[in-house]
Design a protein that fits this description.
Rossmann fold, about 325 residues, globular, 6-stranded mixed β-sheet, alpha/beta, homodimer
Chain lengths: ~325, ~325
């Protein structure tokens, strides 16, 4: 993995993947007591950075590939479905039958075939292997894949260029972290394009496997698989490819509470006028509420696919 | 008024005014049955296009001007306050004492002195004239002012360039309309930079003074002064400067219901992940729900300063 793979992914994206804006607001800075710049990946096509990795992986497949297969209950599903449709390629997405109806509907709306399974009685990996073999589908993993990491890393190229244009010489860069695909891709991009910037992963409290893995030097596992409102970034362990990249290129990992993530979500509504999902808001939460950060912080808001009822409840609570 | 004034305003803005993105979403197009591109001025600094006109007018004042005065209960107040503070200039904003607390607080947070008055017992214009004379302040009107129109017109320059980059040759351009500052500025810009595009103003039903003025050829007045959720764009009559520009450069005016504006607001939440206010959503509502529009429509979402409780209620109703 190196910067060349990221630049190549960016070239393959053309205008199909949006350069998202780097937003800021004086009144948000006042709340935080520091300057905050927000890389708004919630404004990416499909509503999250996952379209980058999906596009990168799909566009790197050999000619003649019959189609792609992905397993996801959310943003990765939509990113892969979007990319496959644009490449005229079949997409089969394995989703648990109890995934949110809106995410199933959106994935279908992008043209994918959704195969529902029962988490309690069926083994997802066995099902995936069978489908892939039967239909000649290429599996697109959510993070532990070089082309997926390269695709997410294009976010980092844009951060480096936009920060330079805004006159930002040095900053901490905070990134929401599940398996580490986005964090490791951005870390690689910044190491080459903005080496003065220091990256920190941000996870929900109780699900900070990456932070503990970076601190201890070996892969750690979360005690629980669910129980945070930040559903998009609850992965059990760091990726096999992503952890070594972050061990080399990232600082210590941070964690925030669900309450802080929800408060960040409502402050993004009020001062930046973007819709963020809870898991996508954890880096902004750290930028707002964490101690020991420098005067200038860049954070990624990684997605905005949020249930309207949850969003409404958070707004009403903050009033 | 000509394109030169708009280009000059853009030059004076530098990086203080953001080039907002032109957003689109395949799933939103499916709802509409046509291609929709959204110029997201809700992502502008201060949360609306008003920062453009405020900046343009303040930056055009002669050196040595003591400060500026504006009358507004909302977005114009914040735009002028932001621009004045950045120019190291005093700003006095006359606001009704019963204006939303959050808008008063935000205007103060940008550094302006807010003077509250009683709509029932005090005459706003008399008060403004006295304050301006006593303190040597320059009045910045909300729309009927050449430099304000030129500033709002910079939105049109960006639309022309972004549409060309997206390969859009011909389109209708729909713009939320109160007094007509944004519409007339964009109309002037497009006449020079994208003459194949046709502009339509969009107003709330019952407050379509501009549409009726354009249809009849003479200024018309609204029967009521309030009674729509689209508070930001309820002006009694077209501007003296703005109407002739639109009579020359715009097509027929459109109108949408409050319910359509609120539905557009919730669809922008779901598919574009931006926060729009009701008045800022009327052009998107027309793009989604109006008949007799072409296959490709560009609409401006003009602002995103919306009360959280109102936004939450709209989301819950749409669920």
């Amino acid at each position: 993995m190196n910067i060349g793979a990221i630049r190549a992914a960016r070239t393959r994206m053309g205008s199909a993947i949006r350069q998202t804006p780097l937003l800021n607001a004086p009144l948000l800075d006042r709340v935080a007591g520091r300057r905050i710049f927000v890389k708004a990946e919630c404004l990416q096509v499909t509503g999250s950075f996952k379209a980058r990795g999906g596009w990168s992986a799909v566009s790197a497949l050999p000619p003649g590939t019959a189609g792609v297969l992905a397993m996801s209950s959310g943003n990765h599903a939509q990113g892969v479905a979007y990319a496959a449709a644009a490449h005229g390629m079949a997409a089969v997405i394995l989703m648990p039958f109890d995934a949110p109806e809106v995410k199933i509907a959106n994935t279908r709306a992008y043209g994918a075939e959704v195969v529902l399974y029962d988490r309690a009685t069926e083994d997802r990996d066995t099902l995936a292997a069978r489908l892939a073999a039967e239909r000649g589908l290429a599996l697109i993993p959510p993070y532990d894949h070089p082309e997926v990491i390269a695709g997410q890393g294009t976010t980092g190229l844009e951060i480096a260029a936009q920060a330079a244009a805004a006159g930002i010489d040095t900053a901490d860069v905070l990134v929401p972290c599940g398996g580490g695909g986005l964090s490791s891709g951005i870390a690689l991009a910044l190491a080459a394009a903005a080496p003065a910037f220091r990256l920190h992963t941000v996870e929900p409290e109780g699900f900070d496997d990456m932070a503990r893995s970076l601190a201890s030097g070996s892969p750690q596992r979360n005690a629980r698989a669910s129980g945070s409102v930040c559903d998009a970034i609850l992965t059990p362990t760091p990726g096999r490819l992503t952890l070594p990249i972050l061990a080399t290129h990232a600082g210590r990992g941070l964690a925030v509470s669900d309450d802080q993530a929800l408060r960040a979500m409502t402050l993004a509504f009020r001062y930046l006028r973007v819709v963020a999902e809870p898991g996508g808001s954890v880096a902004l939460a750290a930028a707002l509420f964490a101690e020991d950060l420098p005067d200038t912080v860049i954070c990624v808001v990684s997605g905005g696919n949020v249930d309207p009822a949850l969003f409404a409840a958070a707004l009403e609570r903050s009033d």
